[in-house]
RNA sequence: CGGGGUGUAGCGCAGCCUGGUAGCGCGCCUGCCUUGGGCGCAGGAGGCCCCCGGUUCAAAUCCGGGCGCCCCGACCA
């Protein structure tokens, strides 16, 4: 049920992946449907997860010299029209405000679908000299794009994200920035989200409206479909020309800036769910989990209750002191078994079971979320608890990543012929030589429903026949069905 | 926008064909009992039957119109 506890079993992930996902989001209390079609309410548990994601990224952004800013939600309609590709790309999905204070507005305002235009407008005022560069900004906000088909976290009309925007004196600097931020995202994906990703370049048809080059990280979900984890765009001088963002260089000559933008959204929560989750529910990577450990007390009599809770509270304090995010489930009226299932639904990496038997021998049972059933349980002396929890959290973090990587590898196929490709995308990714033509790309999309996800930056080298037209190709691309 | 479905308690649904006291499961509240993998018993609260109109002594039910939502297609960082 939408608002209640984890009171029922999920559909089997292997039988109905889509419905498994929908119910998991509701039952783990990550989010709920809003009264407006296609909009999402992020609940406390989901937002806590997002806050950890924000923190992990924000630290990295600051470490590379970026500063946070806040630009307005409303943008003059005319701004969107200034960059040719941008307007073509975004017009169909804009939400437009035409009335304010009961009066028809002289100029309609769009609710930002992204902020390149308004930022460009302001930069043209702020940037005058090469001494003002580079400008390195980021903002955490929400944007609106009027999508037709929506799904919680993966595609909603309004979504939360960060958008980084930078301006540079030279093409090289801007290109470096674009790639540096892609590397930053990769580091976050692999080490924090435990999601293996493929960094690559997008085709012309898939790139951001207004970009010269779009890079993305592509990941394989549990149903073998692809999900774009984030993007980083080299915008060339497209926006600086549209908005007259210029500076005087050392020689006193007026130059247009080179700009970039890069973003990552709450969609990554969807990725975490679809990569790590299982039939029991959510499985969270320890680095991002709101609670890394939950203590479930077990008792019958009042004396037992006193002794168990007393010890449980001490354990909680001890774990918290070791900087482990821990909670103690003191809820009355729910059986331990119920609580086990509830916290498994919510993906807590480690459960600490503490009952009278454990207190008697000064031990506690640790159960790993990534290893269901008895195999994942060990009894640990209380004296070693904090150290063991720390070690296990690291092990789980690594195990989640390794499992996801093995899954992706075993479902990625070197497809040499068109027949190979057709078969491969039925069940994963095809990694194939591609001549780079839009015709071949469109034909593959039309006939297999798979799209060109990216041209991986890391190439095995050599050359071969294009999987579609047979002409000599020097690069291999990832094809797959995508979200 | 096209095709299909659906709207009744917080959630999931039955009732509608054949008009006559609005029901079931889960959840919620109270009490007792239980608690090492989704305890049990008893009592209780909760309704604009999507909206507007029509037919009728009488409409959740029949008729007409509207609206919302879901799925499929088209579209889509």
Largest sheet: 11 strands, mixed
- CATH H-tier superfamily of the largest domain: Bira Bifunctional Protein, Domain 2
Would you state the CATH class of the largest domain?
A: Alpha Beta
Strand content: 25-35%
Helical run tally: 14
- Overall 3D form: globular
Word description of this protein:
With 483 residues, the chain is α+β, with helices and mostly antiparallel strands. It folds into 3 domains: 17-276, 2-Layer Sandwich (BirA Bifunctional Protein, domain 2), CATH 3.30.930; 293-392, Anticodon-binding domain (Rossmann fold), CATH 3.40.50; 412-480, Translation Initiation Factor IF3, CATH 3.30.110. The protein has helices at residues 17-27, 44-63, 77-81, 84-90, 116-126, 171-191, 238-242, 267-276, 302-321, 336-345, 356-360, 385-410, 418-426, 438-448, and strands at residues 31-33, 40-42, 67-68, 74-76, 95-100, 103-111, 135-144, 158-168, 198-201, 213-220, 226-234, 246-248, 254-256, 258-265, 293-297, 326-328, 350-354, 363-368, 377-381, 412-414, 429-434, 451-456, 464-465, 472-473, 475-480. β15, α9 (302-321) and β16 form a beta-alpha-beta unit. α2 crosses α6. Residues 1-7 have low confidence and may be disordered. The protein binds one RNA strand of 77 nucleotides through α10 and α11.
Question: What is the element layout, followed by pairings?
Answer:
Blueprint: H1 17-27, E1 31-33, E2 40-42, H2 44-63, E3 67-68, E4 74-76, H3 77-81, H4 84-90, E5 95-100, E6 103-111, H5 116-126, E7 135-144, E8 158-168, H6 171-191, E9 198-201, E10 213-220, E11 226-234, H7 238-242, E12 246-248, E13 254-256, E14 258-265, H8 267-276, E15 293-297, H9 302-321, E16 326-328, H10 336-345, E17 350-354, H11 356-360, E18 363-368, E19 377-381, H12 385-410, E20 412-414, H13 418-426, E21 429-434, H14 438-448, E22 451-456, E23 464-465, E24 472-473, E25 475-480
Helix pairs in contact: 2-6
This protein binds one RNA strand of 77 nucleotides through helix 10 and helix 11.
């Amino acid at each position: 049920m939408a608002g209640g506890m984890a009171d029922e079993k999920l559909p089997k992930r292997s039988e109905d992946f889509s419905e498994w996902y929908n119910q998991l989001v509701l039952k783990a209390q990550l989010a709920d449907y809003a009264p407006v079609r296609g909009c999402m309410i992020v609940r406390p548990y989901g937002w806590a997860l997002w806050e950890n994601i924000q923190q992990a990224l924000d630290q990295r952004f600051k470490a590379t010299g970026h500063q946070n800013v806040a630009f307005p939600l409303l943008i003059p309609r005319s701004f969107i029209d200034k960059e040719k590709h941008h307007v073509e790309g975004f017009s169909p999905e804009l939400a437009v405000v035409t009335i304010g204070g009961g009066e028809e507005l002289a100029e309609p305002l769009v609710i930002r679908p992204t902020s390149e235009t308004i930022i460009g407008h302001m930069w043209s005022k702020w940037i005058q000299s090469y001494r003002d560069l580079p400008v390195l900004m980021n903002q955490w906000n929400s944007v609106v794009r009027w999508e037709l088909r929506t799904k919680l976290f993966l595609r909603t009309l309004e979504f939360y994200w960060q958008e980084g925007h930078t301006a540079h004196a030279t093409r090289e600097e801007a290109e470096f920035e674009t790639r540096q931020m892609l590397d930053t995202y990769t580091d976050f994906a692999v080490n924090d989200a435990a999601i293996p990703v493929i960094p690559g370049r997008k085709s012309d048809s898939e790139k951001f409206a207004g970009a010269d080059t779009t890079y993305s990280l592509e990941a394989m979900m549990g149903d073998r479909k692809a999900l774009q984890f984030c993007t980083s765009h080299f915008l060339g001088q497209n926006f600086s020309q549209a908005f007259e963002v210029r500076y005087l260089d050392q020689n006193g000559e007026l130059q247009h800036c080179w700009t970039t933008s890069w973003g990552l959204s709450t969609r990554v929560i969807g990725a975490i769910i679809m990569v790590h989750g299982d039939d029991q529910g959510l499985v969270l990577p320890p680095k991002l989990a709101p609670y890394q450990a939950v203590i479930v007390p077990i008792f019958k009599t009042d004396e037992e209750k006193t002794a168990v809770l007393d010890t449980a509270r001490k354990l909680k304090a001890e774990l918290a002191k070791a900087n482990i995010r821990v909670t103690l489930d003191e809820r009355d009226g729910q059986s331990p078994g119920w609580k086990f299932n509830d916290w498994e639904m919510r993906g807590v990496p480690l459960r600490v079971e503490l009952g009278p038997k454990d207190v008697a021998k000064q031990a506690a049972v640790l159960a790993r979320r990534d290893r269901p059933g008895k195999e994942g349980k060990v009894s640990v002396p209380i004296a070693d608890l904090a150290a063991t929890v720390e070690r296990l959290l690291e092990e789980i973090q690594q195990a989640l990543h390794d499992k996801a990587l093995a899954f992706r590898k075993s479902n990625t196929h070197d497809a040499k012929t068109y027949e190979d490709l057709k078969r491969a995308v039925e069940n994963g990714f095809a990694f194939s030589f591609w001549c780079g033509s839009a015709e071949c790309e469109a034909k593959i999309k039309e006939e297999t429903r798979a799209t060109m996800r990216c041209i991986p930056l890391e190439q095995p080298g050599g050359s071969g026949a294009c999987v579609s037209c047979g002409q000599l190709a020097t690069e291999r691309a990832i094809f797959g069905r995508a979200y």
